[in-house]
Amino acid sequence: MKTSDFYYDLPQELIAQTPLDKRDTSRLMTLDRATGAVGHHHFYELPDFLNPGDCLILNNSRVLPARLLGQRLPGGGACEVLLLIDRGEKTWECLVRPGRKMRIGAKLSFGNGELTAEVVEELPDGNRMVRFDYEGIFLEVLERLGKMPLPPYIKEELQDQERYQTVYSKVVGSAAAPTAGLHFTPELLEKIAAKGVGIGYVTLHVGLGTFRPVKEEEITDHEMHSEYCVIPQETADLINKTKANGGRVICVGTTSCRTLESWAADDGHMEAKAGWTNIYIYPGYRFKVMDGLVTNFHLPESTLIMLVSAFAGREHVLAAYEEAVKERYRFFSFGDAMFLS
After folding, report:
1. Which pLDDT tens digit goes with each residue over 25-39?
2. Which of these, 102, 178, 243, 252, could form a disulfide with 59 (CB 3.0-4.6 Å)?
């Protein structure tokens, strides 16, 4: 199967640049994966499509304000550092700009010297290992100095940093938001729980590899990035109970889907687990545990549209996307949502 099989034409003006004033007023397209039938709704109507005894699985990862803008020392030339993975001992694997000026030994300053750093290693893929120096707690320093690492297709400055966090975000560690969850409000979650739908949480720290384009012609030649994820015992128990009672397991976002499918047994049984996953889901994959998916509209030729196509069928998905373009849905991180079941 070719990467080009997952292409669709998207007018630039449909890429949402800012979030809506109210999270759950975004649009919601429903897609019946058996028939390909689509419906047009709003996200606040999601409870209408859930049944008592179903469970909803959400990713509670919180985005790190991981983008640091500073100066190179001495001389003061501008630099940008994007934190990717905490490697311990105050050292992070990072993306840096300008790369040619940030070789081993380069010294950096952020926030008028409140945070300083040194490049200690160059990695084969061009990333850098950067060791930081600061007083106090690193996360608190980042909250003051860091910016949200918005995807490259968002050109507008984000006015309220919390709008790139889900309302249930809890465990800091993502380089990008699990965006399907951005539509939920506390009130909507209460309404869903009141209907008898179980709500469980997993953690998957989203890496920037999620935005990496698939450059290979054959999709099977693409090398999938790794991300760290956790399934707590209470979530495993909720999933097993839901399945035993004939309910549906509905994942909010491709990150929740990848977490569950990484560790589920072939019969769908789930156990508590933590570890790195590089699961790559594309058409032909047999889903072990997921029965429904809430997700945003994804980039053409991305691993995410491949995952959605594996679940609902490539032809159904591309036809639904064509309909979304025609109906002027908003696309990508701050855009509208789909519910596939």
Report:
1. 999 999 999 999 999
2. 178
Token pair belonging to 170? 């809890």
Would the pLDDT of 157 be above 90?
no
φ/ψ of residue 235, rounded to 5: -75, -40
**pTM listed for this prediction:** 0.91
- Strands 61-63 and 171-174, by their bridges, are parallel
Helix (H) / strand (E) element for 63: namely strand 61-63
For 52, phi then psi, to 5°, come to: -55, 135
Which structure tokens are listed for 104?
A: 């081993």
Segments making up each domain of the chain, as ranges: 3-63+160-340, 67-145
Q: Which CATH number fits domain 3-63+160-340: 2.60.40.10, 3.30.750.200, 3.40.1780.10, 3.10.20.30?
A: 3.40.1780.10
- pLDDT, one tens digit per residue, over 47-82 is 999 999 999 999 999 999 999 999 999 987 999 999
d(CA 4, CA 302): 10
Residue 208: φ, ψ to 5°: -70, -15
Distance between CA 279 and CA 295 in Å, rounded? 18
133, 115 contact by CB (below 8 A)? yes
Q: Report the CATH fold assignment for 67-145.
A: Thrombin, subunit H (2.40.10)
| Token duo for residue 298 | 């994804």
What tokens were used for 121?
A: 């290693």
According to DSSP, residue 214 is labeled -
pLDDT tens digit sequence for 161-172: 899 999 999 999
Nearest CA-CA partner of 36 in 254, 338, 284, 285: 338
Which segments within the chain are labelled E, that is strand?
27-31, 38-42, 55-59, 61-63, 67-73, 78-86, 91-97, 107-110, 115-122, 128-134, 171-174, 198-204, 227-231, 249-252, 273-277, 292-296, 337-340
